[in-house]
Amino acid sequence: MDISVQGSGEAVVIALHGIQGTSASWRPVAQVLEQSATFHMPNLRGRGGALRGRVSADYSLLAFAEDAAAAIRVVLQPGKRYVLAGWSMGVSVALQLLQHSSVAAPERLILLSGTSCISEVRWFAEEGEALQREIQAREQRLGLKQAADVEAVAMTWQALRNTDQRGLLAGIAIPTLVIHGSEDQDCPPSHGRSLAQGIANAQLLELQGIGHSVLSEATVQVAQAIEKFLSPISKAGAAV
Known about the structure:
Layout (H helix, E strand, L loop, with lengths): L2 E4 L4 E6 L10 H6 L4 E6 L18 H15 L7 E5 L1 H9 L10 E5 L15 H15 L7 H11 L15 E6 L7 H10 L3 E6 L6 H4 L1 H21 L1
Parallel strand pairs: 2-3, 2-4, 4-5, 5-6, 6-7
Antiparallel strand pairs: 1-3
């Protein structure tokens, strides 16, 4: 497994990246929160040093959820509670992971800049070489310093572009924080609102003037919101 670790705080956060991101996407927020949380940031398949798929079917949400479940089994001691966080595609992976029977459910859920219906966002519209150019342009627009390679992203998009997970939301009872930018062009803010409305125990923070890259555009605001959301965990740990 290719897993980066940041921080030494009581709350354990498994943080999942987006379709073009890597574990590095979460590092700015993890650095701000390193005293109150320990972030474990796996590279999912096709990213960083993780295993690579050969065809688009290797990049299904089920496959990514298997990667995330494997990471949880590697980093967590038996019985240890954790928080599951996802940004962009990582939200979709997190929703899939909640259906996974081989790992315990998280204590809390954090969903950033995501959607429960990828088929309605259309991050890319082209095929072939045109799709590769779209991927490169989006990488630059989002300001990704460490991005997944174009081939892995293209196959991932082909696997996920018709995904609809809206039916899963009603079954989630975990306390959930949804953070979304008001100027998000990739997952318009209506998608964040739908997530918060569909999950019974969810709260929504809509960041005004912020786009899709909330982890880098609004690092301090996101970190403060997460710290507040995790405070019951930190206080419980301090009391032990």
